[in-house]
Amino acid sequence: ESREVAASIVEALEVLRATASEHQEYFGRLDAVAGDGDHGQGMAYGSRGAVQAGRSAVEKGAGARTVLLHAGDAWAEEAGGTSGALWGAALIAAGSVFDDAEGATPDHVVRALLTGSDAISRLGGAAPGDKTMVDAIVPFREVLATEFGATADLAVSTRKAAAVAREAADATAGIAARRGRSRVLGEKSVGTPDPGAVSFSILMGALAELFGS
Ligand code: ADP
Ligand code: MG
Ligand code: MG
Question: What's the domain of life for this entry (predicted)?
Fold first, then answer.
């Protein structure tokens, strides 16, 4: 059972990789407005590294927690940059809810998503309104926890949470960046949504589709 969970995690990482790669150009364009333009590359390289590391851990018989630990390390290393370090930490934190020897329920998956996304807020230290990933993460977590609590339906609650996160990410277009590299060019960012918030919400939307399929 635990091997099945580990294999499912690699499948989920592969969905993130395919989605990041599909949107690489778009994420890069968003980051080029007030940042250094490398967010598409960071997300594509990071997620690709995570899949490779996760897959090789599975081949060596690793369980869910260990797979996410290796995948998170690889994401941070291959992506470089602020968002890569935060995504890497999120994967490692998500892994902490799994036991290598046990199976997983939808409840585990929701807790992994809540714990992983919370790590980004804790480690990044950004507050809502700073125009970062956190602006998408806060409503994502709120809706995911509430909806799953009410329905116990993983696919439906993740889909709703991702949709609300996407709206929140789009709404960051109205504010000036205060954190990360783009703080220097904060005013320039008005009119363009935060790249990290947009990529987070799009990747969670893709994950929701996987859960629903
Ligand atoms: P870099 O800024 O190092 O080039 P990326 O371009 O990959 O890294 O990522 C930029 C994104 O990282 C931003 O759009 C923002 O969402 C996110 N980010 C930057 N700093 C923080 C922070 N302190 N907390 C949360 N997210 C952050
Ligand atoms: Mg950048
Ligand atoms: Mg950079």
Answer: Bacteria
